[in-house]
Amino acid sequence: MTDPAPLDDSHELPSLAARVSGDTSLAAPLRSLIRRSPVSCRRGTSVREVLGTMDAQRIGSMVVVDDADSPVGVFTLHDVLSRVAVPQLDQQRPIDEVMTPSPATLRSEQPAHDAALVMASKGFGHIVVVDHGRLTGVLSERDLFALQRVGVVNLSRSIAGAPDVAALKRFGDDIHRLADQMLAQGASVEQLTQMIATLNDLMTRRVIALCLTEVGRVPRFTWLSFGSEGRHEQTLRTDQDNGIVFELDSGGSAEGVRRTLLPAARRINEALAECGFELCPGNIMASNPECCLSVDEWRQRFAQWIEQGTPDHLLKASIFFDFRTLWGDPAPAEALREFVMEKVPKNPRFRRQMAANALRAEPPLGLIQDFALSGTGDRAGTIDLKMNGTTPFVDGARILALTSGVRETNTLARLRGCAERKAIRPDEASAWCDAYAFVLLQRMRTHQAQQRAGRRPADNRLDPNDLNELDRRILKEAFRQARKLQSRLKLDYQLSL
Fold first, then answer.
1. Element holding 313 (H helix, E strand)
2. CA distance linking residue 159 with residue 203, whole number of Å
3. CA 433: distance to chain centroid?
4. Which residues contact 296 (CB under 8 A, 6 or more apart)?
5. Among 82, 274, 315, 333, which one has the highest count of C-beta atoms within 10 angstroms of its own C-beta?
6. Burial per residue of 11-50, b for 16 or more beta-carbon CB atoms within 10 angstroms, e otherwise
């Protein structure tokens, strides 16, 4: 195969933005999905009148507005059964008594993707659209997913209402099918990973709630997610990376609390495995006593890593510092984040070590051919899209964010936050975001193709010859952007070239 000519530097990634986050229905502004003028009523309108209007207009919801046409509540067909029919409410009562106050609202210029995330995370079947605070329209799940044919609201509600762990098992496959549909419809990688993370979060929270019902009363704790889950960057289902942080009551013993929590944590980890989230081979799980710590113990652990900076400490920091709260009180986790964000900038030695560590995974660019190939056996002549593709961006963004005071854990959000703080140029952030998104998208496509071909488990290896010429050119340019990011770290920290 003839090697394609390299892209000119002036183009950066010329068509990448369009390919990664193109004009799909989920990228379209909400105003473009509104099919009819909204139907609303004022406070004090009787339930009977509202029901008559809904029947005559053949609508499934009624928005209650104030005198300025600002939404103050919403009433849906679901509310008719639960709040009117079953309790046999006097239909002369005002709608105020049965509406859902403070409905979820989004601005008309926001993308449909934002509405999808709200529906998935909250289980809402309707989203109220506003323009300058005034009612503009109402979107249902049917409106939003007319092209995708994705039942995200029904899926999220089913997950949230699952009666036991056994009932949750099948929803993992449903999430896979949803991701496949979104990928086929051209959704951007950011939309995909956020949707997967949102639904996986719902699964995990439901598992925790069900398991706590099984094991009985335990001390208060906060469930943390680490790694790709902590960054909202799960491609599909991955292995578990989680932990627990808890606060001690006055005179309490960390060892005593841990002894009580560990059996519950073990049951949660096992239940998550039953639902398709594989146990972590490195044992980075809440059931490991090393990952079930008080706030002070986590602080001590993080301080040791930052102050000593051994290779093992750097590896752990690259996983554990991408944490976020998934269940429970977020305050302990925020205290830990404040500690890390204060400690890292004050330790130039650790920052330099992290920067050097971020250079270990080199982008697979060849000196003669387009790509530097690796692998053994039937995977010889391939490239590792995770280790040599996404990892340089993830590691680079992490050190830039920690140095610049950006508190986000998501890689794209970190790069954008660094640009906002003028730690990197906006054009650098844009190019690196586009490049990272394209590599991650190729990784998801690779997983999908491998699963369809029956490869179990799917890996991160891609044969570049399987790509068309345009995708090869863009992938090569994406790797060049990874190299530029690493060059920036080399320059900032005076590391050898």
1. helix 311-320
2. 6
3. 15
4. 248, 254
5. 333
6. ebbeebbebbbeebbbeeebeebbeeebbbbeeebebeeb
The whole-model pTM stands at: 0.74
- Report pLDDT digits (tens) over 225-252: 999 999 999 876 578 999 999 999 887 8
State the CB neighbour count (10 A cutoff) for residue 407. Answer: 14
Name beta bridge partners: 131.
Answer: 134
Long-range contacts: 421-428, Cβ < 8 Å, 24+? 424/400, 424/488, 427/12, 428/484, 428/485, 428/488
What whole-number distance in Å separates Cα of residue 300 and Cα of residue 285? Answer: 19
pLDDT tens profile 289-312: 999 999 999 999 999 999 998 999
Q: Each residue of 169-202: pLDDT tens digit? A: 878 778 887 887 777 777 788 888 888 888 899 9
CB-CB contact of 176 with 234 (8 Å): no
Residues of the chain with CATH 3.30.460.10: 152-336
Assign domain 26-144 to its CATH superfamily: CBS-domain (3.10.580.10)
Measuring CA to CA, which residue among 215, 220, 218 is closest to residue 249?
220
Enumerate the CATH 3.10.580.10 domain ranges in the chain, comma separated.
Answer: 26-144
Under 8 Å between Cβ of 361 and 391: yes
CATH code at 353-492:
1.20.120
Distance CA 337, CA 335 (A): 5
Taking a C-beta distance cutoff of 8 angstroms, is the pair 393, 485 a contact? yes
Residues 6+ apart with CB under 8 A from 466: none
Reported as half-sphere exposure (CB side, CA atoms, 13 A), residue 348 has a value of: 3
CATH number of 152-336: 3.20.20.70, 3.30.460.10, 3.40.50.2000, 3.40.50.2300? 3.30.460.10
